[in-house]
Amino acid sequence: MADQPEKRGQAPKKTPAALRGQAPKKTPAEQRGQAPKKTPAEQHAQAPKKAPDERRLTAGERNELRRQERRAARRATEQAAEQGGRSRGGSGAGRAFQASGTPNAPRRGGSDGKPTGKAGLPTSSQGRAGASADSSPRTGKGVSPKKHRHRAASAAKRDDGVYRAGFACFVGRPNAGKSTLTNAIVGQKIAITSNKPQTTRHVIRGILHRPDAQLVLVDTPGLHRPRTLLGERLNDLVREVWSEVDVIGVCFPADEPIGRGDRFISSEISELKAKVIAVVTKVDLVDPATLAQRLLAVSELYDFAEIVPVSAVSGHQVETLTDVLVKHLPESPQLYPDDVLTDEPEQVLIAELIREAALEGVRDELPHSIAVMVEEMLVEGNLTKIYADLYVERDSQKSIVIGTRGARLKEVGSRARTEIENLIGRRVYLDLHVRVAKEWQRDPKQLRKLGF
């Protein structure tokens, strides 16, 4: 069963400094050669306090304890399976993402499961080459944009002997077409898309493999004026990515005039060392005269290295944009194995697909209030059972998501199940529950629980 990296026996994602091969920063005490301070419990050799009797816990605390017990049991089972898989030449998690033409490829098919009415930048890893064009996205370990530049490249090179590899990201205000463009270049659905602003909440990396280059596209949330703690953390995440990539593409939608948000972003990138190009998106929605006006306005906004008009929907100039991005990458050996299309954990991708389905048809502030967490995944034969929770901030929002007699929640489950089956290549049973986490966007504890 594919799961989080630590549940597959992989090391967790490293910090950018660790990924570059730098030693972690030492504390002042460590720099002075002193031993780290012990906690009060360690100083007094106190045993950790026992959990209170379950009968004294609240219903929510009892549920959380049960979840922890299930996770611990599942982790132990997976570790045992991982050890057994290694003795046979590989883990089940790795085989689940092999190319569809290989002997271990998973079967594809429709789902007989029904939803219930209840409501860091990437180290180089060795992998198997030969993924077919229609294979499901394969997850893998991350690679630093600066580390492993001195490793020998395993991919074919051009006649001039130059092979380029590096990181690029698209930035812009919300709903500028960044995720759609990322999917179009990679050739697979890596990032979820929606017409709702601020759909992207996580940094998703998609990898494009070419004979002469390897382009790692980092999809980021839209930079915006934050109104919640979540918004502040998303903006911090965007700026952190800016400092790590080799090329930045600033996206300007052609069907909207240049606004304050565009000017703000242009001023923010002025101090960056990365190459900055302008990408005028959604050109299929405007006439040539309007497009010419947008291109002129963009050219006056900032001294961009290049300006490329593109349409991710029609495919207009997508290949041209790819060539421009690759041209500005540094000479470098290959960073990822040939068959890796994303380094995101499978559960994160599944949670995002469920949230994408839940965003369809909702209005007002509800899209910003929806979060999804995959609680459990079980593999039984050719069927993968997924248990996930949808979180909202108020009881009234819970009623909207569930719908009349659970009708809307069933629609969400049906759409999400189809996308998940396309992702993992297996039949899926999806069990969804809707829960209320009051004001979770402003609560640090809730944000940590939900992965922000």
Can you offer a commentary on this structure?
InterPro entries: G_ERA_dom, GTP-bd, GTPase_Era-like, KH_dom-like_a/b, KH_dom_type_2, KH_sf_prok-type, P-loop_NTPase, Small_GTP-bd. Residues 310-312 are annotated as: G5. The chain is of the alpha/beta class. Among the domains are: 164-327, Rossmann fold (3-Layer(aba) Sandwich); 345-452, 2-Layer Sandwich (GMP Synthetase, Chain A, domain 3). Helices cover 33% and strands 15% of the residues. The chain contains 15 helices and 9 strands. The chain has helices at 16-19, 28-31, 40-43, 59-87, 92-95, 178-186, 229-242, 260-268, 288-301, 318-327, 346-359, 366-369, 395-402, 407-424, 444-449, and strands spanning 164-171, 204-209, 213-219, 247-253, 275-281, 307-309, 371-380, 383-392, 427-436. A 6-stranded mixed β-sheet has the order 2-3-1-4-5-6, with helices on both faces. The chain has a 3-stranded mixed β-sheet with strand order 7-8-9, sandwiched between helices. Strand 2 (204-209) and strand 3 (213-219) form a beta hairpin. Helix 11 packs antiparallel against helix 14 (407-424). The chain is globular and about 55 Å long. 38% of the residues are buried. Residues 1-11, 44-55 and 85-159 have low confidence and may be disordered.
Walk me through the topology.
Layout: H1 16-19, H2 28-31, H3 40-43, H4 59-87, H5 92-95, E1 164-171, H6 178-186, E2 204-209, E3 213-219, H7 229-242, E4 247-253, H8 260-268, E5 275-281, H9 288-301, E6 307-309, H10 318-327, H11 346-359, H12 366-369, E7 371-380, E8 383-392, H13 395-402, H14 407-424, E9 427-436, H15 444-449
Parallel strand pairs: 1-3, 1-4, 4-5, 5-6, 8-9
Antiparallel strand pairs: 2-3, 7-8
